[in-house]
Design brief:
single chain; mainly alpha; Neurolysin, domain 3; 3-stranded mixed beta sheet; 20 helices; globular; binds zinc ion
Amino acid sequence: MNVQEAIDKLNELELQEFAYGHAFGILSWDDETVAPKGSQIPRGKTMGVLSELSYKLSTGDEARALLDFLKEHYDELTPEDRRRTDLREKNMRELRAIPMEEFVAYSQLTDEASSVWREAKRKSDYKLFEPYLGKIIDYKKRFAALVRPDMDPYDYCLDQYEEGLTREKCEAFFKTLREHIVPLLEKVMAAKPIDTSFLSTPFPVPAQRELSAKLMELMRLPKDNCIIGEVEHPFTTGFSKYDVRITTHYFEDNFLSSMYSVVHEGGHALYDLHSDDRFCFTSLEGGVSMGVHESQSRFYENIIGRSREFVELVYPEIVRLCPTLASQSPEALWRAANVAQPSLIRTEADELTYPLHIMVRYEMEKAMIGGDVKPADLPGMWNALYKEYLGLDVPDDKNGILQDSHWSGGGIGYFPSYALGSAYGAQLLHKMREDFDVRKAVRENDLIQVNNWLEEKIWKYGSLYKPAELMERAFGGPFDPTYYTDYLERKFTEVYGL
Ligand code: ZN
């Protein structure tokens, strides 16, 4: 085999992996959106077969031999093919280090834990979930020790979602956020409250669907490659640059909820829709990490979507679809869309208090994986942190430790990427402003300028660079969270007239 033959093989292998992922993803999307309730059994069978086939394909002798060959000829590879080799190596290290039986047992555990978590949340009873969370934590620690004995176990967890992120980087990052956000929030809480009563004006769902279509048009989401579905908890699935699905949830008495879901998920979709053509059907297609993905979705949702200019741009359509709202000015709507108020639920949190919710989870995860807290003590720790960071008393587990699904699925180390994404977005805005007048572009319905910039700096690279490297290239220097804290200070000073 020569290098060219190996690359041909690699292309073939990744195309097959793409095909399994595509089929699997379509089944999941169908399940979440339109599939009839009774379709679970055959879907479960099909997904089981597909998972096994795809596992064998990616870990089989041929894939291993190919990886070994690529590593031996690393110096002869292009930067693209080196990156593909590194990504395969990272995956393979995991699959090689964790015994198959443990991997299967862990998958079964998280499967079961997810339904137990749902039940526990419904009953607001952490005790039901506690043994499962305990076992998940034990597995995570064990996997960390097996896969990366050289690494801090929580660093290993972080690295799974945001390659290269460490506890050390998180500490510095969250410290800066805390120092700025806590006093800023105090000022906001002392300011004159903003009227939000009109946000519950009934906005019929069919009219909200029209609003979604308008938002997708403003964001230049191509209709032929991106559609919207309706689900309980909105998400985005990108199959390829030709097919991305976003979702939303409509509440008749809270139209902003769906409006900002569409803008957020639309930001994810734009990223997935703009990978360079040459990455199609390879492991380099699509977004590189959770943090970078969230930087794009939150950039659209908060920085663009909650700007005065964007609200003014959408206002005529809002009033056309829900004439009762015409009694409110665009200014009043913009302020109401930016209200900051400590609350118990992360997914409903505003832009300013959101990072505090993430910090609670970060402290919890550090303690779980660091091993100095028992599963039984976690709710007490959660409640104490909410009191400390947000000044709130947590009334029950449902509104406390049981609110998020992540840990039940084994997603420990995932949360920090949300806050990191927000901070990346603010530094991107700073750079974007050096190149053109962003406010003017939004005001004049010229979001194509914003998209072109993001495509050039971020989207087209797919997964070619490691997350931090991609961002540093876009920033033209190191990541600096003070762009984010400055942005928040400027914005909330304006919204509240501080
Ligand atoms: Zn998101």
